[in-house]
Specification:
By secondary structure, the protein is mainly α. The protein is 76% helix and 1% strand.
């Protein structure tokens, strides 16, 4: 990867390689799927379209760059096998997104109906018996499970040598456990109405940072057989950038342009997301404007009108929560770059990661 590479799908040379690798994997599963019959082919095709429809391929890009930065050679015979392992992260991401959309009752993803909504619409159009919504959710759960199972298959069948496979096994296992744990924490925070910044940061750490940047970099390092100095630097860098990435996502969930993000603006508020942004807004409003704090508590997790969303936005800005989140993003990005100094990561790897950190934390979608 060239040093100037970023997370932009249009300019990132990893993206077409990841997508080609994923297409090859899906094609290799076609025979098995077709043998099952009974509409399974159409369902799996929906999953395939979901995986291949857009996306910046953030996780494979960080894993591949981690491998390069730890001394991996893109022209080496094992490069294609490494790319297959990196690409498998997109199937883990697909599982997380499909299930997350059910949990959050989201209706759109990347400008298209979410998987559970699409299957509910198919059920309704066909005039089948039973509840369309429950059918859609059931099918989406199964397809999310399939994506996770196939991610494991893709790693196992990647072609990496046994020593590399042994090195990445605990990394891969840790990543899967962490992301599911982070999702659990997120659900509990919403159900219990935990308003603390600490609880929201814990979700960011495990639901997003660990499997978005920290563990993909760790995976790349393990594939290259890197020493503990590089692994430690990657994990510190990945945690900082990963949390900053989620903080930017928190801002976009409230203030983002739906035409750019592909999701309705204010969705996080309607879903009751206990983000760091919202926790900071409550903390500050409790101190400076109790009436505003009461309004925020009464609206989070409800079917907000556009005027309600506008008023919530105004409060969040006015109490200073947006400026504090922006400051935290800036500080985390700077801390991440410091972690790479004297780490043993190649110059090429450091330059690429610096560019990727900037894009991850300054993005608009």
């Amino acid at each position: 990867m060239a040093p100037e590479a970023t997370l932009s799908a249009a300019s990132n040379p990893v993206v077409p390689r990841v997508e080609s690798t994923l297409r090859d994997f899906f094609a290799g599963r076609a025979g098995l799927v077709d043998e099952i019959g009974g509409g399974y082919r159409e369902a799996v095709s929906t999953l395939e379209r979901f995986v291949l429809r857009g996306g910046k391929r953030v996780r494979p890009s960080f894993a591949w760059t981690g491998w390069l930065g730890a001394g991996g050679d893109p022209d080496a015979p094992e490069a294609d096998a490494v790319m297959r392992v990196c690409s498998a992260l997109e199937l883990v991401q697909a599982c997380a997104l499909v299930h997350d959309d059910i949990i959050d009752a989201s209706t759109t993803r990347r400008g298209h109906p979410t998987v559970h909504v699409a299957f509910a619409e198919e059920h309704r159009a066909a005039g089948w018996s039973g509840d369309p919504g429950r059918f859609g959710e059931a099918v989406a759960i199964l397809l999310g499970d399939l994506a996770l199972a196939w991610a494991d298959d893709m790693v196992r069948e990647s072609g990496i040598d046994p020593a590399a496979a042994a090195r990445i096994a605990p990394v891969w296992s840790g990543m899967r456990t962490e992301v599911l744990g982070g999702q659990f924490l997120d659900i509990c925070n919403e159900a219990s109405a935990d308003e603390s910044v600490e609880a929201a940061m814990r979700v960011n750490r495990f639901k997003t940072a660990a499997y978005t940047i920290e563990r993909p970099l760790h995976l790349g390092a393990a594939l290259a057989g890197a020493d503990e100095t590089i692994v430690g630097a990657y994990r510190r860098f990945g945690t900082d950038v990963g949390i900053a990435f989620q903080l930017r996502d928190d801002l976009l969930g409230v203030f983002g342009d739906p035409e750019v993000t592909g999701k309705p603006s204010g969705d996080d508020l309607r879903a009751g997301k206990r983000t760091v942004l919202f926790a900071l807004a409550l903390e500050r409003a409790d101190r400076d404007d109790p009436a505003a704090a009461e309004f925020l508590r009464s609206r989070i997790g409800s079917d907000l009108s556009e005027s309600d969303v506008d008023e919530v936005r105004e409060i969040i800005v006015r109490v200073g929560a947006v400026s504090e989140v922006e400051q935290r993003i800036t500080e985390l990005a700077a801390s991440a770059l410091t972690a790479l100094e004297d780490s043993g990561v190649t110059d090429r790897g450091r330059e690429a990661l610096a560019a990727m950190a900037t894009t991850a934390t300054e993005r608009t979608a």
